[in-house]
Amino acid sequence: MSEYSISEIKKSDARGQRAMTCLLLKEGIDIDKNLDYSLGLFDEDYNLVATGSCYKNTLRCMAVDSSHQGEGLLNQVVTALISFQYEQGNKDLFLYTKCDSARFFGDLGFYEIARIPDRVVFMENRKNGFSHYLDELSVQKVPGRCAAIVMNANPFTKGHRYLVEKASRENDHLHLFVISEDVSLIPFDVRFRLVKEGVSDLKNITLHKTGSYIISNATFPSYFLKDSDTVISSHAKLDAVVFSKIAQALSITKRYVGTEPFSRVTALYNDTLKEVLPLSGVEVTEVDRVKSSDKEISASDVRLALKNGDFNVLKELLPASSYDYFVSEEAALVIEKIKASADVKHY
To answer: Cα–Cα–Cα angle for 91, 191, 149, nearest 5°?
Structure first.
C-alpha cells in the first residue's frame, strides 16, 4: 500500500494549483471559480492523486486519479475537508454532486435534500436539517391566499419595491425571502436591513432568510455539468424542488419574479421556474420591471452609480430608506468595496 500525505494547496502554490486543475480535468471536472480552500493527497514523489475543495460551508471539486480509485482516497479527502470546516466553526455542511455519486456521500453521512435526475443531487450533513428549517417556517404560516418573492436585493431598489407592492396588494399575505448567502458586494446584513426598512409600511409581509437552502446563480457549482444552459436549468430546477417544499410548509400558491431584460442567465432561470413550479401547485407570475427615465430599474445600475459617486441617479433608483443609508457615514466601507470592484454590473 502506498503512503500518502495530505496538505493544503494554497492559491499561491502555482505548481499545486496546476496539478489540481489537471487532475480535475482528467476526471471530467472543471475547476470551480468559487473556492476558498483546497487540499491534496500526494504520493511519495509528491504527485497529486486526490483533491477536494471548499467554498464557505460547501464541499466542492473532489476527485481521485483514476489509477488510484478503489483505495479509499476520496473518503480521506472528504474527512479532511469536514475537519477543516469544523475548525472554521461550520457545523452545517452542504455539497452538490452527480447522481451516481450520491450513494457514496450518503455512506459518509450526507443526506439528500433535493435531486434533479441525471444531473445533480443537493445534500447536507444533518439528517433532519431541511425538515427542521421547514418546521421553523411552518410556524409562520398564515391563512388566506399566500404568495412569495425570493430576492438578493443587492441593493433594494424602487424596482424591488414595485414588485413587492404588487404582490402584497394582490394577495392576503406575502412571504419575502432574502438570499442569505454573503457573496454580494453589499453584505447580507445590510441587504436584509434595507429590504426590511423598505417594506416596513406594508403590513401583510413576513421576511425570511433563506439560509443555505437557496443560493445565488453566482455560486451554484457548475464544474460537473456540461454547458452553461445545463448549469442554469439545473440550478433553477433544483431551486424549484427546494422551493416547492418551502411553499408547502407556508401554503404558498404563487411566486412573483421580475422580468429580466439585462441578464440571459436570470431570464432562463425564470423560464425554468415557470415550467417547473406549477407542477407543484405554485403559479409563477412574471412582472414587467418598473422604469426610471424610460429604462428598467436595475440593481446593477445602482451599484454603478455608487461606484461613480452619482447620487442624482441613486435618488432616482432607490427608495428613501435605501438612499438614506448610502448617503450616511455607515455606508462608507460598503461603497469603498464597490468602488474597488472591477465589475459591479453583473456581480
So the answer is: 90
pLDDT < 50 stretches in the chain: 347
pLDDT at 347: 42
The rounded distance, in Å, linking the Cα atoms of 49 and 52 is 11
pTM (two decimals): 0.90
**Which domains, from first to last, does the chain contain?**
1-91 (3.40.630.30), 95-127 (no CATH), 132-293 (3.40.50.620)
The DSSP string of 176-222 is EEE-----SSS-HHHHHHHHHHHTTT-TTEEEEE-TTSS--GGGS--
170 neighbors 256 (Cβ within 8 angstroms): no
- Burial class for 127, CB neighbours closer than 10 Å (0-12, 13-18, 19+): exposed
φ, ψ of residue 152 in degrees (nearest 5): -85, -40
Between the CA of residue 114 and those of 43, 96, 217, 272, what are the distances in Å? Answer: 36, 10, 17, 16
Answer whether the bond into residue 221 is a cis peptide, omega within 30°: no
Q: Which of 167, 152, 226, 181 is nearest to 58 (CA)?
A: 181
